[in-house]
Amino acid sequence: MPGRPGQPRSASASGKNMPGDGRKRKRKQTGGGGSKFPPLPPQLTDDEIEVSDEDLEFVQQHQDYAGFMAGLDSASISRQVMGLKPDEDVEVYYEKKAKRDDSSGPKPGEPVDDLPVKTLSGELQYRKASSANAVDATSISMEDRRTLVRKGVTVQTDDVAPQSAAESTEQDSKGKDKKSKMEQRKELKLARRKEREEKKLVGKAEKEPRIPSIPEEDMEELEEYVDIEKRRAEMRVMMAGMGTSILADPDNNLGSLRQLQEMCNDRDETISQLAMLSSLAIFKDLIPGYRIRPPTEKELEMVVSKEVRRVRDFESALLRYYQTYIQFIVRSAKSRSKRMTALKCICTLLEAVPHFNFRESLLKAVVPRLMSSDDDICKMCSSAIISIFKDFGKHGGEATVEAVQLIADLVKLRNCQLRPEAVQILMYLSFDEDLVRESTLASAGQPTSKLNEKKSKREVKREKKAKKRELAAKLRKEVQSDFKEAEVLPEVREFRKQQTLILSAVFETYFRVLKTSLVPSVQRELSPEEEKAGVKPLGPRPLLGASLEGLAKYAHLINVDFMGDLLDVLRSLASGGKTSEEDEFADGTTTVWERLQCCIIAFKIVKNNMDALNIDLREFYVRFYNLLFHAIFVRKEEKSGQILAEALQAMLWEGRHTDMQRAAAFVKRLSTLAFHLESAEAMAALVTVRHLLVRYKKCRNILENDGGGTVGGGIASYNAEGDDPDLSGALSTILWETSLLAKHYNPNVATVASTITSITDSNSLVLPTLTPTGAIREFNSVLTKVEDSSGKPKKKPARRLRKQPLSEFMSSLQKQHKLANTDEVSEDVVKPVEEFLTSHFKVMKALYS
Amino acid sequence: MRPLDEDETTQVLEKLHKYVGSNLKHLIERQATDGLDSKPGGFCFRLHKQRVYYVSESIVRRATNIARDKLSSLGTCIGKFTKSAKFKLTVTCLDLLAAHAKYKIWVKPSAEMSFLYGNHVLKSGLARITDNTPQYQGVVVYSMSDIPLGFGLAAKSTADCRKLDPTDIVTLHQSDIAIAFPTLTIAEGTSRLLKRPPSLIPFFSQARLF
Predict the structure, then answer these.
(1) Is there a contact between A618 and B102 if contact means CB atoms under 8 Å apart?
(2) Which of A27, A86, A266, A294 is 20 to 30 A away from residue A93, measured at CA?
(3) Domain with CATH 2.30.130.10 in chain B
(4) Is B2-89 in CATH node 3.30.70.240?
(5) Who among B104, B128, B162 is closest to A612 (CB)?
């Protein structure tokens, strides 16, 4: 028996090597009462000894040898061995002995009353284990204690699994409902998870006592810790028991929920959290698929059948418990320590049972946490709300309306100083497109009443018939309305109403953000404690980007009446909200990219409402024309290329019709900018230029204009820095940029540039398939591979030399020069230099001569 | 031929401002590129026989050599003063307005002829309108192939245009290139051309009707 406390060293060794052993050992210990003097068996009464057949056989075979035993005087022997008085019982002696040993007083943490606890399943639970351990803990050496700590803990954690396993088998044998089985599994999982957590904790705790000499205070702490762990284990077992009993028979055992809720209020936070989680699991399974409506007074007065009464009682009890539970978790979501667990409960409930009562309070707890500075909390809350948005079939859309309205209120309250997530989640809303159409509700025909003063007999007869018919029609109508009520699907009109409510709340939020963005705001200073907590400062307009994206997504749902106002706001946002040109990009105004986005969205909105009126957004073109210059010089963001390409696509690619002057101005400016852009962006710009030139024949004047002139309708000279594309006079200039771009280091850009120059030559034009956004996407990723593709076998080395950028070429030249290490420059170095420079400056000379 | 006095200048500029808005500045400061002088100089307004001309300075200098009664016209005629001393724009200023106009409308090909015969532009004929056009703003009317056809006043703002019936008036007709057209064609004796003016309009528009 290596596990006996009498041999602590070997026990510790085996405990370390074989953790599974612990369970068996413990069982034996609890069964045998594990005292300090084990070698003697006197505790066992005759009943307790199980005599097997083998034993009987053995005794019978060796009867002769055992004969002397019959004549033994056990009383005198025990007196001889232990010094017992003749009238004293062995048990009494043992008790005394134990008392003598620990006369130092009761141990800390030792349970005061040793009355057994009756669990829900009706089993009696004795506190043997704890008392035995407590006795051991005091009477053995320190090293033994250490062993015990480990052993005790493993035993506790292991105890849960077998018990719940046993319960589950019991349940399975009953096989009454699936739900309880599922719950069983959940409980098991929960228990295992806890086990793992505990083990981790233990692992940490284990390291501490290994320090050779442990001071006394530490010992006390350790003991306390052992106690807490023990209590937790017990509580956990109780929770599991309660859970299974409730789910096995919810009607009768619902009262256990109260006990569970008391556990939620436990001082020990771990227990409280565990209780919260187990209540969550129980509620998740118990809650019916409908909303419980409290019976009216009239209904209460009526005499109802037994069953109805039972159901009603159950429902009201469940509702009561659920309410207290919700109140508790909402309250504890505010506390620091239990916050995460409580929020997890709230979010899970929102995801699982959004249709049920008290959803409002759950939502009210979740929505304000969207502005939490903690990323995890924010993420959790937003995912819960997104799940509400996504499966509105679960709650019939009501929760969505409430959530959206709460968000709108939050944005209003915080004056748009929020994390962008709060508005980003609105993108997950879905609207039924068909509902926008006018629903054809057949209006009931007006009953025509004939008031004839004189009625012939025949007429009277007819009238009677008509009355009958009317009655029948009335009846039919009633039946129809009954059918309608019984229909599962919510009525179309109801649905429409909901969607309207959602939409108005969403747009209210968006418009509010836009409106507040108009005012050049000063960034809110962070308070010192916020800075300490590592809170990221929100930008001056944290919600603008998200709102613009949302507006673009729901642009087709905007009422045409709002369009004018919306465009006004976007226009002023696109121009930075300021009229003076000097401090156009001062602090507090919108950034270039935000302005570009405003332009894009204006175009998207107008495009989606094209049936109403075809509008020429001149102002936005002018803004865009100017922003193009700034786009190069302002610090780049990650998405800048993408935004630029989107703007090109929305404004120049998809636009149905533009002024020739304007188109030419954009052609000219874009090809000028292509010099300064990265190759992917340059690609997007050039593709747009090609598209414009292919589409508008008049603009092709710009390709073969000899000596300027009056083609430009009155404006005779090109003004490169002008603000207005219509007045730039681009038609009276020439597009010399393309021929220079044909020598671009990126072969793709060079190809596009050369196709632009040859547009007029080729009669059969194939419309380009590459769009600006497509170009950005393709060439941003391809960018790294350009070097490989430039080295195609068909390219001659001489050409490749020319494609090298000047700086690169010079550096390679310097290297060569150093290698040669001579004062006079050798012939083979000079020749390529000359070749390179002549080819490079030939174009320049041609341009400026 | 004389420069405009202060009263006349205000009248002319106010009228032009109705159509080109803040681009009036560009119109006045515009630099001439063609001309015989090495330094062509800018443009200016001149009054001659109750008509106002938009002329480059080099031409003005040369025109001073011609007697007043012998000089029939110079530069571009943009309008005339009526007997009651009110200024009116003539269609000949269309090129100038079109180059600097802030607000434009485009008419559908089916509505081009109607406009050229002097009718107002109806909602049904409206193809496209500049965003944010205020009511009673001077606008230049274009065909769908981007040729200026004339000018007029916006009867409704852009926002109001959305809700109009197809038969409601969008733009009030003031002047169009067909006004000049009949006189020219009749002079040439080609009455056949009368039936299809739009195809010829580009030619006349480019050729500057003065």
Answers:
(1) yes
(2) A27
(3) 102-182
(4) no
(5) B162
